[in-house]
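Input record, target 12 of the design panel.
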């Protein structure tokens, strides 16, 4: 199976929401295009299999959508977003923007940003492949169909670097966390999380596997995901080993983060049309 070709893209947008410059490079880091001519840029888009960008899903594509020269086929290409990837692979880093050491004159350069994005993709690939196979398979089973991660897994498979195995998620969670959580978590809410909240669950599990305490989990959990979910997850798992979860956590911290009655009302409202979630 041929390795898919990557096109790494970055856009610079002014305060009015207009694209001022686009940078394109290939997977070898070669410069392909830099400029604001959307028609010229489109010629490159036809010859690559996967688009890669940092926050491409919520930033670059949203502005490119407004350019009439960009064909709709652009938005049907597989996409790898390194912002999502890095926030999961390097979840304990509190900051996931590109580190732009080149900006001595404080000017953004989309080609240089695309190169930073490519380097970050390589780091994420290396980090994922360093995980134990069972962790790789757990994350794959949770995330293989999510727009944030599907293409990344397909890319690794096509490169011959990853041979995934679908696993039974609930059984794996029970095996890994049964000593830390109540049995009621598995009986009452685990199935719901697995079916409805795979993305959020993957982030929580990464933090737990790193043995983060409660404060660290709230600190590092990505802001783009539901804090309500995270609170309910920990609420459901409130029998966690106290020394493991509560290091350096005061009773006020817990009270502030775990307003249980308000949380219960939020969750019941959020899932009103779904199967009722019972308080453990």
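The sequence produced for target 12 reads:
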């Amino acid at each position: 199976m041929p390795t898919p070709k990557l096109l790494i893209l970055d856009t610079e947008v002014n305060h009015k929401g207009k694209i001022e410059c686009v940078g394109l490079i290939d997977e070898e880091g070669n410069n392909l295009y830099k400029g604001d001519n959307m028609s010229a840029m489109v010629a490159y888009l036809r010859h690559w299999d996967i688009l890669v960008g940092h926050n491409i899903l919520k930033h670059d594509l949203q502005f490119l959508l407004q350019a009439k020269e960009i064909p709709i086929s652009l938005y049907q290409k597989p996409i790898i977003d390194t912002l999502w990837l890095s926030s999961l692979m390097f979840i304990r880093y509190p900051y996931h923007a590109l580190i732009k050491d080149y900006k001595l004159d404080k000017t953004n350069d989309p080609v240089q940003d695309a190169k930073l994005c490519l380097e970050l993709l390589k780091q994420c690939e290396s980090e994922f492949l360093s995980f134990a196979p069972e962790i790789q398979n757990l994350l794959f089973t949770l995330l293989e169909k999510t727009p944030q991660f599907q293409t990344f897994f397909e890319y690794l498979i096509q490169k011959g670097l990853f041979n995934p195995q679908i696993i039974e998620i609930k059984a794996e969670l029970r095996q890994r966390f049964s000593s830390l959580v109540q049995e009621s978590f598995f009986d009452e809410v685990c199935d719901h999380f697995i079916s409805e909240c795979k993305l959020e669950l993957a982030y929580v599990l990464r933090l737990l596997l790193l043995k983060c305490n409660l404060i660290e989990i709230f600190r590092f959990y990505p802001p783009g995901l539901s804090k309500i979910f995270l609170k309910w997850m920990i609420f459901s798992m409130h029998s966690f080993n106290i020394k493991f979860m509560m290091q350096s956590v005061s009773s006020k911290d817990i009270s502030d983060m775990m307003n249980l009655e308000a949380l219960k009302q939020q969750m019941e409202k959020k899932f009103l049309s779904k199967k009722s979630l019972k308080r453990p």
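The chain has 14 helices and five strands.
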